[in-house]
Amino acid sequence: MASESGKKRKPKVIRNDGPPPEGKRNRTEADPDGRHYSEEGEVDVRDANKDYELYKHTCLELQRIMAEIQDLKSKGSKENAAEIEERRVQSCVLFMTLKKLNRLAHIRLKKGRDQTHEAKQKVDAYHLQLQNLLYEVMHLQKEITKCLEFKSKHEEIELVSVDEFYKEAPPDISKSDVTVGDPHQQTLARLDWELEQRKRLAEKYKECLANKEKILKEIEVKKEYLSSLQPRLNSIMQASLPVQEYLFMPFDQAHKQYETARHLPPPLYVLFVQASAYGQACDKKLSVAIEGSVEEAKALYKPPEDSQDDESDSDAEEEQTTKRRRPTLGVQLDDKRKEMLKRHPLSVMLDLKCKDASILHLTFYYLMNLNIMTVKAKVTTVTELLTPISAGDLLSPDSLLSCLYPGDHGKKTPNPANQYQFDKVGILSLSDYVLELGHPYLWVQKLGGLHFPKDQPQHTVSADNSLSASHMETTVRLLKTRLQARLALHKQFSSLEHGIIPVVSECQHLFPAKIVSRLVKWTAIPYEDYLELLYTKDIVEAGLAEDTHLYYLALIERGTAKLQAAVVLNPGYSSVPPIFSLCLNWKGEKTNSNDDNIRAMESEVNVCYKELCAPGPGYQLLTNQLQRLCVVLDVYLETESHDNSVEGPKEFPQEKMCLRLVRGPSRMKPFKYNSPQGFFSHR
User: Fold this and answer.
1) Which residues contact 672 (CB under 8 A, 6 or more apart)?
2) Alpha carbons 169 and 159: distance in angstroms, whole number
3) Confidence (pLDDT) at 457
4) Does the CA dihedral 149-153-157-161 come out positive or negative?
5) pLDDT tens, 211-241?
6) What is residue 534's DSSP assignment?
7) Using an 8 Å Cβ cutoff, are 187 and 175 in contact?
8) Would you state the pLDDT for residue 316?
9) Do the Cβ atoms of 459 and 435 come closer than 8 Å?
10) What is the pLDDT of residue 417?
11) Which class for 584: exposed (0-12), middle (13-18), buried (19 or more C-beta within 10 A)?
């Protein structure tokens, strides 16, 4: 009964002390008939802010009632028990209100989460639709790109221009009323016109072939006529000799030269004919001449005459020989050697004129008993050359034509049969006589039409015109290139010996404007001295240094740093680049074996040499490599870290612009020069 009386008094207390009870009011608002009550439905009609205010008000009332109960209990009076019980009932009602508000808050939270989840699902659905649309767009773009990049076979055909098509094509093919506005129909019409033109050209080709056959027949008739004309021309030439002398027109001189050529041995004759033909057809500056005694050449082919005079002469010679001392064995061997190395009395001389008016004189000889050809070379220039000390072997006849073809040094006889002949007379090698007889290069034998199989000794003369003709053009081009390259090196060495690296204007962009390192020494060294250098061991072991090559030593300095460069110059310069081996004396001796950056510097000049080739034949490659060597030495020294413990300014201040000073565990330096931008980077 107390609880019931409390419940009856509860609305009065709350209604008098605070807002009206929300439970009863909400029940009527949610369900006016009072038949059904739902807190979830009530949440939709209640205001959350008002519930929050009710919550604060209820908490305050609960605090107040608790404080009053504490005061009444502290007094300890029995009359206060009824009031304490009344306050307890009021606090229970307030607790019930708080629990209801708590449930409503949880319902609101659940509804908020559900609404958020629904919104996320909608967003995910929209995002999925967007991805599908983007995929479809990407697919369509790919298809469009394929269509745009499609190339038909007709695009490879070079059609006439549109204006020319409408101008020349007949109306039944051009169809201007249809094709002008339709590119597809226009292309089809142009293809039809191309087909029509090709049919006409095919017919014209057949007509030309028929005309060609007709002309060939006419040429045969004229050849027969010209062959019968030769005897008449000979008589006319004989009658015109006084006129030729008066007008300085030596037609007969050329005829006499051809008459002299009849007495040449077969190899020299083949060389003379092929060189003359090449000069007339391809090189007007090539002059061919025959030197020597024709009478001696004729005497070689005369048979011995048996007569009494010869017998009397032989008897007299026998009487004289009996009176004289018998020649010693050494004298006999010398006579046999001279006889075996005897040259033909006639020789062929070729003069190759280059663009700078320099001339390469080649004199070809034929060794009759050895059946090989030799050559001697000589160079003449328009102006007298100042011969640098280091250029002594450049124009030397002994090395000028060495290795014109790879491996052809001209110190051994190409005929395998000669070795057996040398053994009989005590000749160890032909290299001891090349200065006197000339060099028996392989290309010389081929120009004379001689071919010596290694497994088959050859004793008879066999000169092949086709072999000579197949090598004539290539060899003449190589000879001119060799002469021009040696003359260019000759001029460069003159500057290098004075510490000047000549760089042509076409190559200035390959190097930075300011280069501090400078060349202080350039000298030639013997092959033996090159082998003794420790930092050239790798080049020697790789077989890149031979006794036929030229060797030089360059010294580049900057401050206290000295860079030595040992240079191997192949006889085939500039088609075969020079090879540099480096040794840096600065804070110790640094080579490619103990410093990766020295190896990278060698790579810059040896491997990346194609970047330094000037436009044209590339005769400035050596000086460009030396200039690049000065540049990379600057980069090497300027990118070295400064020792802060040493007082004073840095010995090599950084003047080159580098993207990165070092890279990688090996601390590689940026040696590559980017000419347009003017900075250095790593390769």
Assistant:
1) 604, 680, 681, 682, 683
2) 12
3) 55
4) negative
5) 999 999 999 999 888 888 878 877 777 777 6
6) G
7) no
8) 53
9) no
10) 87
11) buried
Q: Which residues contact 294 (CB under 8 A, 6 or more apart)?
A: 260, 263, 345, 346
Structure tokens, 206: 């057949």
Higher pLDDT, residue 139 or 5: 139
Q: Which of 636, 606, 635 is nearest to 622 (CA)?
A: 606
- Structure letter (DSSP) for residue 331: H
Query: In the 3-class helix/strand/coil scheme, how is 272-304 assigned residue by residue?
Result: HHHHHHHHHHCCCCCEEEEEECHHHHHHHCCCC
d(CA 255, CA 330): 47
- 3 state DSSP class of 553: strand
Q: Could you report the per-residue pLDDT of 637-656, keeping only the tens digit for each?
A: 998 876 655 555 778 888 88
Neighbours of 146 (CB within 10 A): 9
Lowest average pLDDT, out of 21-30, 318-327, 349-358, 418-427, goes to: 21-30
Contacts (Cβ under 8 Å, ≥6 apart) of 553: 521, 522, 523, 524, 525, 564, 565, 566, 567
> pLDDT value at position 598?
94
| CB-CB contact of 371 with 458 (8 Å) | yes
DSSP H stretches of helix in 301-346: 308-323, 329-340
**Cβ atoms 366, 373 nearer than 8 A:** yes
Residue 175 predicted with pLDDT over 70? yes
- Residue 629 has a CB neighbour count (10 Å cut-off) of 24
DSSP calls for 432-500: GGHHHH-B--HHHHHHTT----TTS---S----HHHHHHHHHHHHHHHHHHHHHHHHHHHHHHHHTTT-
- Give percent above pLDDT 70 in the chain: 86
**First vs last C-alpha separation in the chain:** 102
State how far the Cα of 618 lies from the Cα of 612, in Å rounded to an integer. 9
How far is residue 256's CA from residue 149's CA, in Å, rounded to a whole number?
71
How far apart are alpha carbons 548 and 399 in whole angstroms? 8
94 vs 58: CA distance, rounded Å: 6
Backbone angles phi, psi at 376, to 5 degrees: -120, 140
Rounded to the nearest integer, the mean pLDDT of the chain is 84
Query: What confidence score (pLDDT) does residue 24 get?
Result: 41
CA nearest 570: which of 375, 439, 405?
A: 405
Largest CA distance in the chain: 192
Within 13 Å of residue 656, how many CA atoms lie on the same side as its CB? Answer: 33
Report the share of the chain in percent with pLDDT over 90: 41
Give the integer Cα–Cα distance in Å for 136 and 130.
10
Backbone Cα Rg of the chain: 54
Q: How many angstroms separate the CA atoms of 31 and 8, rounded?
A: 23
In 3-state terms the chain splits into helix, strand, coil percentages (rounded to 5) of 55, 10, 30
Angle at 288 between CA 286 and CA 292, to 5 degrees: 155
Provide the b/e sequence for 336-363 (b: ≥16 CB within 10 Å).
ebeebbebbbbbbbbbbbbeeebbbebb
